[in-house]
Amino acid sequence: RPRSHTVTTTSSSFTANLSASSSTLAYDREFLRTLPGLLMVTEIVLGLLVWTLIAGTEYFLYPAFGWVMFVAVFYWVLTVFFLIIYMTMTYTRIPQVPWTTVGLCFNGSAFILYLIAAIVDASSVTKELDSHNYNSWAASSFFAFLVTSCYAGNTYFSFISWRSRTLQ
Q1: How far apart are CA 160 and CA 168, in angstroms?
Q2: Where is the MARVEL domain (predicted)?
Q3: What is the number of helices (H) and of strands (E) in the chain?
Q4: What is the pTM of this model?
Q5: Alpha-carbon distance 25 to 116, whole Å?
């Protein structure tokens, strides 16, 4: 015997708002022309150099280089993530997150941990350790200090932004 099936669908306002807002993906071209944007791209490029120079060696035999790899890869991934957030202006869609505080904490922690990693990297590079990997480790140490200075600059700009938001 045939049965009659009635299907009722409802849509929430959240779903309607989500589909309306996701159809227009914002893109901020001007972010890359600002000093924090340029520093972020520089952090990505130089950070990539740091971890690829180490990854091409037998770093896993030396715990110090394992630490440098962890810091370099961790902050490289997060910096790419934050660049995407800033370029797509996703931060404007999530106003509940205190983005100035998040940026300050991110850049401050990146500066401190990258400084430690750069010092560890530089102090671990010796020809006696492994002459085959010496050039790669020395270059990674140099680039680690450059990335550290970029994160220091972005920490400064994040602090200025955070300070201006907390004074309002």
Answers
A1: 13
A2: 31-163
A3: 5, 0
A4: 0.81
A5: 38
